[in-house]
Amino acid sequence: MGSDVAVIGAGIVGCSTAYFLAQQGIAVTVYDHAGIGAGASGRNNGLIEHPYDSATVPMFSETVDLLRDFLGDGMPPTPVGTLLLADDQGSAQELVEHYGTFPELEPALWDPDATRREEPILADGLWGCLLHTGYSISPADATSAVADRARAAGVEFVLAESIELERLRTSGREVVVAAGAWSSAVLSALVPQDAVTPLWGVIVLVELPERPRHPIVEGTLVRGLVSGHIENEGPFTLLDSPSWLAIGSAFLESEPDPSVWTRRLLDQATRFVPSVERARVIDTLVCARPKSFDARPILGRVPGQDRLWIASGHGGRGMSLGAASGRLMAEAIIAGSDAGIAVELSATRLSR
């Protein structure tokens, strides 16, 4: 393929796409009006986590391997284990049965004594379901590492400038829209406007007297991420990454007021971790996750359009699936066909 490629979006998906294209000798320019990892790719909680969705499990496994290459010692060699919390035995058992459909997760039921023994910062009376997943990384460092690899391979970055899709398209280049939550807006009438929409998140960066041993997640959260139906718009999470210790989370259709949500997240967190009452707040981060219409990534050629591609819709799994998404996109662009992308993830779904 002799033509150049323009990538709109310098998050983990866009940078990965550019890198894998450049590895094959393709001239690539990445455009982002804000900067590298300026959106969700640099402002999330930094947990590389099983997607709990059979359609994306292969991408997750590949991304873990790719991040080991990109990050070196910055990628933990083994998962620390994600601890899901429930208020009663029945709810905890339901979590074990639900995630037992993925044998690699090895779900383990913990009664309140075991939960408190293994995670001493927790309040009494909570049941646990431990899953064999969860790699804590610095999301900004991961995105920057991929961008550095891309630069070394010859990719040019044009940052902090306005981007016009039509100008890029008329230049004769292949154009990849990997603009995260704003991908539908960039593509405008070329895709349904609900193809990718912002799902706003809030995390509160804190210092606590003790740090957790595991990523801790209220059990209602992960079911909602997979189904696309958010049962709880503000579930409790406590995640310790190399970048920060973060209390979350929020899953909101409209942009939140950070001060309101800081107080709400801290207040609810004390039910699970009483020492949060003594937490020192460092900062509050707000970002827009790219939520697709069916809660799965959208990868491939935009239906009915020549030389126009989309790589977006990863929701809260951009870091966990982004590197493999970029590899798939590069393969499709070089081949001139997205037939190799699984139908469950293909952009052909936009023709619905």
CATH superfamily (homologous) name of the largest domain = FAD/NAD(P)-binding domain
| Cα-atom radius of gyration | 20 Å
Low-confidence stretches: none
Can you tell me the CATH topology of the largest domain? FAD/NAD(P)-binding domain
Helices and strands: which structural class? alpha/beta
The tally of domains stands at 2
SSE order:
EHEEHEHEHEEHEHEHEEHEEHEEEH
Side by side, the strands of the main sheet go 5-6-4-11-12-13-10-14
Count the beta strands: 16
Please report the distance between the alpha carbons of the first and last residues.
30 Å
Please tell me what the overall shape is: globular
CATH class of the largest domain: Alpha Beta
Mean pLDDT over the residues: 94
Q: Roughly how much helix do the residues carry, as a percent range? A: 25-40%
Largest sheet: 8 strands, mixed
Number of helices: 10
Strand content: 15-25%
What oligomeric state is this?
single chain
Protein model, in words:
The chain has ten helices and 16 strands. The chain has 352 residues and is an alpha/beta fold. The chain folds into two domains: 5-74 and 138-193 and 294-351, FAD/NAD(P)-binding domain; 82-134 and 198-292, D-Amino Acid Oxidase, subunit A, domain 2 (D-Amino Acid Oxidase, Chain A, domain 2, 2-Layer Sandwich). The strands form three sheets. An eight-stranded mixed sheet has the order 5-6-4-11-12-13-10-14, sandwiched between helices. A six-stranded mixed sheet has the order 8-2-1-9-16-15. β1, α1 and β2 form a beta-alpha-beta unit. It is globular, with a radius of gyration of 20 Å. The two termini are 30 Å apart. The mean pLDDT is 94.
